[in-house]
Amino acid sequence: MILYNSASRKREEFVPYDPSLVKMYTCGPTVYHFAHIGNLRSYIMEDILEKYLRYTGYNVKRVMNITDVGHLTSDADEGEDKMLKGARREHKSVLEIAQYYTDAFFDDCAKLNIKTPDVVEPATHCIDDYIRIIQKLMDTGYAYFAGGNVYFDTSKLEKYYVFNDFKEEDLNVGVREGVEEDTNKRNRNDFVLWFTKSKFEDQALKWDSPWGVGYPGWHIECSGISMKHLGENIDIHCGGIDNAFPHHTNEIAQSEAYLGHPWVKYWMHVLHLNTTSGKMSKSSGEFLTVSLLEQKGYDPLAYRFFCLQSHYRKSLVFSWENLDNAQGAYNKLIARVAALNPGDGEFDEAAFHELDQKFRTAMDNDLNSSLAVTALYDVLKAKTNDATKLKAIAAFDTVLGLSLIEKAAARREELKRQQVVAGEFTIISESGEADADVEAKIRARQDAKKAKNFAEADRIRDELKAAGIEVTDIPHGAKWKRI
Ligand SMILES: [Zn+2]
User: Fold this and answer.
1) Domain edge (last residue) among 201, 235, 270
2) How far apart are CA 434 and CA 100, in angstroms?
3) 237: CA distance to ligand 1 center in Å?
4) What distance in angstroms lies between residue 117's CA and the mean position of ligand 1's atoms?
5) Of 75, 83, 80, 85, nearest in space to 191 by CA
6) In b/e form, how buried is each residue of 24-56, taking b as 16+ CB within 10 angstroms?
7) How many Å lie between the centroid of ligand 1 and the Cα of residue 28?
8) Domain that holds residue 346
9) How far is the CA of 200 from the centre of ligand 1 (A)?
10) Measured in angstroms, how far is the CA atom of residue 243 from the centroid of ligand 1?
11) Which of 127, 148, 149, 406 is the most buried (most CB within 10 A)?
């Protein structure tokens, strides 16, 4: 499989450190609010990667952190504590907020068919791991204590920037107006490993440490949690593109300084979901959540389908119109799968293999999910029996996660319920909609045929056609659809 590596900025052949187990790490959510669907795009695409690795035969161990402490509103240790902000907004404790939004996050993931990682670790559970890493960084001169906090000294590194070509002088431009500069830092990019002198009097969660009572910085969480569960090397570290700098850059700095060797083999970053007015965020424009999509009548899996139709390294533009189109295409896809007859033919292994190769070629090409969706449509058009087609669709869907087999089976059941039986004659609506007028006309046409009044039968068929209704005769009945 070819995977784009953000660290080398090249497409590379994927070769894990240990072929018997792929170790994967995902930066999890900061649980102070609902995730917006832009954040969830990253989790969908990471889910596809994990499932495809399993599809090709790898064992995968995937770890995700839950940030319930230490993340300030600016990723560069400035601004407010996000968890405190959430707690204040909702008049709850920080731990209540963390639990509530952790549950909400996994509810959203379940609706989007995102598998829960093998290990999910809240940041507050691993304080000793961070302290051990920070202590070694202090002992080896990579960290320093100033003004009550412990900082990582970025000037000790030969190379700090990994994902971008920033130069020192460019950084002044990036300093946000209105944010007080931290004068304790020796270098602009130094970052906090441990806070004791909190800017926030009411910081709820504090722990004892060799540097005083306080709490960890955000970046150290991912290094500590990944090393605890995955050891000294990770094959693939994933995240949204906004995590590349400073978060992932700082993760690499502290982890490699601590370990003394390279840490992550492949970095995978998913690009933004934009709205027509720009980058999606919680604070600007409509706050787009999975619940909002549901309230508006969309299936969350139609959103997953929408995400799959675009490559993860391209930014994707969300609009209600685009989602309408995705929902329409998704419904049609389910109807087409439902129209396949599970009892049609014997499984044809050669035909399956050919279809599967197309799917794998798409996914092996840096997870080209839109081509993988095309491979799925190719199955529907393929010259093989329905049993083989259904096997291929079921196989691909273990990766794509669109619940196609389940939804198609439910639809077949629904269609059966909706069959209108009139004597021996059964009328089936292909879309599942009921229309008494159409059914009455189809029955009148059947009566005319029985009475050998074929002119009248043709007239009724033409009348229906003019009204956009196509009628097809089936044994003991007719089926109809709008065209
Ligand atoms: Zn992280």
Assistant:
1) 270
2) 42
3) 9
4) 15
5) 75
6) bbbbbbbbbbbbbbbbbbbbbbbbbbbbbbbbe
7) 7
8) 290-412
9) 23
10) 7
11) 149
CA distance 40 to 401: 14
Measuring CA to CA, which residue among 255, 229, 260 is closest to residue 23? Answer: 229
Residue 206 lies inside a defined structural domain of this protein: yes
- The rounded percent of the chain whose pLDDT value lies above 90 is 70
- Residue 196 Cα to ligand 1 midpoint, Å, equals 21
For residue 248, report the distance from its CA to the centre of ligand 1, in Å. Answer: 6
C-alpha of residue 27 to centroid of ligand 1, in Å: 4
| d(CA 282, ligand 1 centre) in Å | 19
pLDDT category at 165 given cuts 50, 70, 90 is low
Q: Are residues 405 and 357 both part of a single domain? A: yes
Identify whether residues 428 and 389 lie together within a single domain. no
Within this chain, do residues 44 and 162 fall inside the same structural domain, yes or no? Answer: yes
Q: How many domains does the chain have?
A: 3
Distance 167 CA to ligand 1 centre (A): 23
Note whether residue 93 is domain-resident: yes
213 and 303 together in one domain: no
Counting Cα atoms < 13 Å in the Cβ hemisphere of 294 gives 9
CA of 143 to the centre of ligand 1 (A): 19
Give residue 24 CA to ligand 1 midpoint distance, Å: 12
Cα of 238 vs centre of ligand 1, distance in Å, is 8
Rounded Cα gap, residues 64 and 45, in angstroms:
15
Q: Of 7-21, 174-188, 245-259, give the lowest mean pLDDT range.
A: 174-188
> How far is residue 11's CA from residue 9's CA, in Å, rounded to a whole number?
7
Give me the residue label for tokens 């009921």: 434
Name the residue among 358, 305, 345 with its Cα closest to residue 329: 305
* Positive or negative: CA dihedral 440, 441, 444, 445: negative
Residue type, 242: D
Domain identity same for 238 and 373:
no
Whether residue 149 contacts residue 192, with contact meaning beta carbons closer than 8 Å, is answered with yes
Q: What are the tens digits of pLDDT across the range 186-236?
A: 998 899 999 887 655 566 788 999 999 989 999 999 999 999 999 999 999
Report pLDDT digits (tens) over 373-416.
999 999 999 999 999 999 999 999 999 999 999 999 998 888 77
